[in-house]
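Moderator note: this is an archived Q&A kept for reference. The question asked for a predicted structure of one protein chain; the sequence and the answer are reproduced below.
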Amino acid sequence: MPKRTRAGALVALAVTGLAVGLAGPAAAAPKAPGFLAAADLPPHPSSSWTADKVTVGIPEATEQDTCLRALPGHEWAWHRDFRTDLDTGARQISVVLPDTRAAARLISALDKDIRSCPERIEGADPEIDATMKDYGKLSVEEGAHVYGLHTGTSWGASDIRLLSAGRDGRTVTVVDWGQMGDFADAPVKAFKKTTTTAVNKLH
């Protein structure tokens, strides 16, 4: 090998070694954050809650959810489904972000998604009427926000949904509750307590 070529190769190897040293080992995947238990959900008047196992990933149904468009695509995510014997169900989804700045951006995107959701629902189906209520912020860790969404159809179906998004450090959690009914059927006070518990359990 000519001296110039050999010298160039040695420089290249040195630079590569330096780059590897600076990069360090790949970041280890974080542990799943704490999740709600069945007893943490808003009490149902005639049925107890059942909680499924905490599962890695974001559910396929959520990937299609126009109210939570910012959630899919995140690497470190987990979810847990809850159900009653009747028509009421719930889901918690938690995502660990690389840092607090990324977590704050996700919260901001989720708030925008939820607030603008009725327009997209009505735009996709003119036979559905969607109405959003803002139930305000909660003072827990880095904060949480609670919303209510009612959808009614031209054929008489009526559904009420409560949604919240909260953050503790670099972890974001979303709690999603729903059943048949309207705003009068929404357990807002109990859901706020559930959201507070969900954020507190993240660490």
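Archived answer notes: The radius of gyration is 22 Å.
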